[in-house]
Amino acid sequence: MIASSAIPDVEKLATLIGTSRRGAPTVIETGQNNRVFDFGDMIVRVPRHAAAQAALCREAQLLERLRVQLPIAVPAVAIRDVDGLKLAVHRRLPGQPIESAADLGAAEQASLARDLAHFLQHLHGLPLAVLGHDAAPPNPARTWHDLFQRVALSIFPRVSTVTARRIRYDFERFLGRIDDLPIVVIHGDFGTGNILVDGATVTGIIDFSGCDAGDPAYDFASLAAGLGKPFVRQLQPHYPDLSAMWNRLDFYMSTFALLDVLFGLDHDDDAALQAGLTAINSAPGGHR
User: Fold this and answer.
1) I need a surface site. Which of 11, 69, 209, 283 has the fewest CB within 10 A?
2) DSSP one-letter string for the chain
């Protein structure tokens, strides 16, 4: 973890980014990877750990290539070095993170679903070369095999035998067909916190630190985790290939709690660890 003492003071941040606003910014503490400071007109993300810092630098370069190819606004991120700590700075996009689609009428939900499907079609349709991998091509299969090994080593001892058996079965079934899955450019964290809206209008998509090569179903799983599978079904008329992905959404959604546990273990974050274990044990077949 990067120590809290390494965070520049607010006045230094304001001077650094050239914001017109003075006074304390709004501090957003919801992310596992970054502390987010909202100065009204500017956003500053301060990494919580070294991996997050590296991801911010990669994201800034990636967004330079993506911005001109996507139909919805994404941030123009600049990296600033403050006392050896790299920060990501960008102008605040309009809108607020979507919290729920339940309060929207049927026509508004349909409009929102159409906009999100349109964005994902464009993103998933980009050539993998846009990711800028200079060395070996991305290997999502290896990533998932490695994740399963970590789960078996670090999580199985912390859950019941029944739960461990269920997780193993789900992974083995998934890994048995992984080589046949499509590989496209995905957002990697297409959840409600990263989708900005004004009413039912999508005004921006943020946080591309997880953008990489992967199964397009992963983005729909992230969306379903926040807005529910019934809403995600409304994207299908605008994204016909979604119909073939439904059986993978449940698996990907089941891994989110596993990732929370691993994050908690990696970064000594007991809140993330306990939240993940609670979610795992409350899943069907997950009782102790």
Assistant:
1) 11
2) ---GGGSPPHHHHHHHHT-S--SPPEEE---SSEEEEE-SSEEEEEESSHHHHHHHHHHHHHHHHHGGG-SS-----EEEEETTEEEEEEEPPSSEE---STTS-HHHHHHHHHHHHHHHHHHHTS-GGGG---SSPP-HHHHHHHHHHHHHHHTGGGS-HHHHHHHHHHHHHHHTTGGGS--EEE-S--SGGGEEEETTEEEEE---TT-EEE-THHHHHHHHHHH-HHHHGGGGGG-GGGGGTHHHHHHHHHHHHHHHHHHHHHHT-HHHHHHHHHHHHHSTT---
